[in-house]
Amino acid sequence: MKYIKDQENLNNKRVLLRLDLNVPIKNGIITDETRINKVLPVINFLVKKRSKILVVSHVGRPKGKINKELSLKPVCENLEKKLNKKITLVRGNILELKRNDLFNDSKEQIIFLENIRFFDEEEKNDTNFSKHLSKLADIFVNDAFSCSHRAHASLTKITKFMPSFAGLQFETEINALKKVTTEIKKPICCIIGGSKISTKIGIIKNLIPKFDSIIIVGAMANTILNFLGNPIGKSIKEINCDLIIDNIFKTAQKHSCKIVYPVDVVVGKTLEDRAKIKKLNDVKNDDFILDIGPKTISKIKDIIESSATVLWNGPAGYFENPSFAEGSHQIAKAISKKNKDKSIYSVVGGGDTIALINQIKAIKDFNFVSTAGGAFLEYLEGKELPGIKALN
């Protein structure tokens, strides 16, 4: 894979820059700027190299049709302020766009094409659409790792028609993920949550041979506790998972990987209730398990303390209610403490986990925070991502 940071002669070169600017927009207002902030390094790098930057991105799922509510206009306006540079948004039909239509003003340096998913050719991975896009620039840069699990025209087939490179954020993401999959510093643990074991089974199976411990929290842990014969009341659980869980334990035993799950819990009668700590066998029929208990927190903190690397995906409980956020907060603090003395390498991913660490303003206390979502999870599963394959 070739990286844009290693290219010297970019002066006046037209760069087709694929970014992931799929940010939440409500009434024209961006409610989370995390993804915008992550693309600033590559844009600033190309600006300094005096490149002509043609940005391709998307917002939402317009399904190949123009939807004004999913325009990139608010993103352009946000970036203009952050970069202190004028940005032109081309709102016409991309299929009718010619190379000579762009950068006619010598002072113009950044142009955005309107939401690429307004054209159904994008998600169909249409070869002619890719070829057409390639004619608008000289080189292609993919700095949208978070979209690279999609075989779309502006991510994969476009590399057939022009010199192609990985962007700065793309490289950072891959390097961070390598440290929890292939270039591991041990001991290494994984803290994994979520509602369904079946959606994370691929990750767990792929990580067990490489990890020293897998800590299962959140609603996933309820399914394991239920499998082991513990009462879980009205808690969220997944049905028909006995074979999956049995397989996890057997595989873990084979590879000497410890599977850790709650030894005590925090319950409430409703999501708005106050927290009540309970032993596993004390959970009543009308209880909801909504967090891990103090003994479990202590156990997890001990594992983090003895680890050199940690991967965290999924909060420990229903953190939206402060009464059930203690487990997640304590995990964050334990990792953060080791980060400060540089005795651990931490990778965090998943929307809920990021929301949690943003809530306690701890996002800078981790080595790498991934906003890649599906791409992050598929990479951890060991799947081949089309966007990576296209650049190799």
Question: What's this, in brief?
Answer:
The protein has helices at residues 34-48, 73-83, 120-123, 127-134, 168-178, 197-207, 218-227, 242-254, 294-305, 326-340, 351-359, 374-381, 386-391, and strands spanning 14-19, 25-26, 29-30, 52-56, 87-90, 110-113, 139-143, 164-166, 188-192, 213-216, 258-260, 264-268, 276-279, 288-292, 309-313, 345-349, 368-370.
Q: What does this protein structure show overall?
A:
There is one protein chain. The chain is 34% helix and 18% strand. With 392 residues, it is an alpha/beta fold. The protein folds into two domains: 4-169, Rossmann fold (3-Layer(aba) Sandwich); 179-381, Rossmann fold. The strands form four sheets. The protein has a six-stranded parallel β-sheet with strand order 5-6-4-1-7-8. Strands 11-10-9-15-16-17 form a six-stranded parallel β-sheet, with helices on both faces. The protein starts with 13 loop residues before the first strand and ends with a helix. The model has no long low-confidence stretch (mean pLDDT 95).
